[in-house]
UniProtKB/TrEMBL annotation:
Stated name of the protein: Response regulator transcription factor
Annotated SMART domains: LytTR, REC
InterPro entries attached to this UniProt entry: CheY-like_superfamily (IPR011006), LytR-like (IPR046947), LytTR_DNA-bd_dom (IPR007492), Sig_transdc_resp-reg_receiver (IPR001789)
Lineage: Bacteria, Pseudomonadati, Bacteroidota, Cytophagia, Cytophagales
Keywords for this protein: Phosphoprotein
Amino acid sequence: MDYRCMIVDDEALSRGIAKNFVEKTKGLTLTHECSSAIEAINLLQEEDVDILLVDINMPEMTGMELMKSLDENYQVILVTGDENYAIEAFENSATDYLVKPIEYSRFIKAINKAKANIDAFRQRNERFDEIYVKSDSRLVRLQLEEIYFIEALADYVMINTANKKYIVHSTMKGLINRLPQSMFVRVHRSYIVNTKRIESLEDLNIVIKDKYIPVGASYKESFMKRLNILK
């Protein structure tokens, strides 16, 4: 199982060290390196990320402020040269806290903790075969097998079923975290698909119900691995 990781640090040298650690760790995929918290926030609106490695001491917006602005869908590992932030980090639900210079063994320990949290959350979702969503001021129960694909619409998402479409106020990240990973996969910043509804794949376009859904470049590798599982 792959875990998508983002690095947020204003120091190029620190980003380089973190990048090296991520790239040599099996199961981690580096999505982006960000030099500021503001850049990270903008990217998180479009990209699916599981784990964030965030430096605390950054100008404009600190890593602590970034973590507080995020919802619970992310595993945040804080990184700093100052040990005095440890208590505040854990009080604000940081997954772990790393002090520079980071040793690879300590990095792995933090990553494994983040993975365990993600896996536990995903396993809970695997037990469900239905989901409740609020659409048109009504609470609607949907059988997961009825969902064909989900499309992003600014601050909303559109859930496409066999016979109807539901507009729901949610983010793609928030929704994918409520769905079983064995059935649903994000293939583009704007699309989540039900793997059981895939009819064919044509030039990296998924065909579902006569709809051609593109596979985004940053999602291609993980999606192709999923196809191998489906064969």
